[in-house]
Write a structure and sequence with these properties.
Layout (H helix, E strand, L loop, with lengths): L24 H4 L7 H11 L5 H14 L3 H5 L6 E2 L4 E4 L8 E4 L2 H13 L18 H14 L9 H6 L3 E3 L2 E3 L1 H8 L5 H8 L2
Antiparallel strand pairs: 1-2, 2-3, 4-5
Length: 198
């Protein structure tokens, strides 16, 4: 049996296809955080979804606690203390665990979510099939909500983490330098403080 011989073939395309380079963030949008009003608009749009309460609560919790998408979708009911109004936060990327206070509107939203969750799950945010929500699903939801809210730029989930630069506890605002440990930013310096400086 004769073996087939390999033949050199001249390429049909002279200039090979090159992957396009990603534009820098500065060319895509002027900033990497959302304002409090923009977060409210995202939540209002998310409430119109099929699972509106869950989606709006995801945005609220990510914003208040500076969650990365992976930390948000891994949140479990055992981490939420309804009696004391505390949230036990587990961080990814070798982060330091911490305990955050839960404000009234957030506490009410989580209680309602737990009451209405079917089927019951150890995870706070689940799909309609009862499986844990995915980071990709959350990213798509935030992107769609940002487009419907007409923010003027493409929103992504990490903007909610950057948006928690100032947290409201009653009428008091805490500066980012005081909350960087709670959000597990090892260097709160130049990147964040300049952005949110009064």
């Amino acid at each position: 049996m004769n073996k087939a011989r390999l033949q050199l073939v001249t390429p049909s395309i002279i200039n090979r296809t090159v992957m396009p380079t990603r534009l820098p963030n500065a060319d895509l949008r002027t900033r990497e955080h959302l304002t409090e009003a923009e977060v409210q608009r995202l939540m209002e749009v998310a409430r119109k979804n099929r699972w509106g309460h869950r989606d709006a609560t995801m945005i609220l919790v990510a914003y208040r606690h500076g969650f990365r998408p992976a930390e948000l979708v891994d949140l479990r009911w055992e981490q939420v203390e309804f009696t004391s109004g505390a949230l036990h936060v587990r961080r990814v990327k070798r982060g330091t665990p911490s305990t955050h206070p839960i404000l009234g509107d957030e506490l009410r939203a989580l209680r309602r979510l737990q009451r209405e969750q079917e089927p019951k799950s150890p995870f706070v945010f689940t799909s309609e099939r009862g499986t844990p929500f995915t980071t990709a699903g959350f990213a798509r939801m935030v992107e769609r909500a940002g487009a419907e809210a007409s923010l003027g730029f493409k929103a992504h989930p990490h903007m909610l983490r950057h948006a928690c630069g100032y947290l409201r506890y009653g009428n008091r605002r805490y500066h980012i330098a005081r909350t960087h440990h709670a959000r597990n930013n090892r260097n709160p310096g130049r990147k964040f403080v300049r952005k949110f400086f009064w």
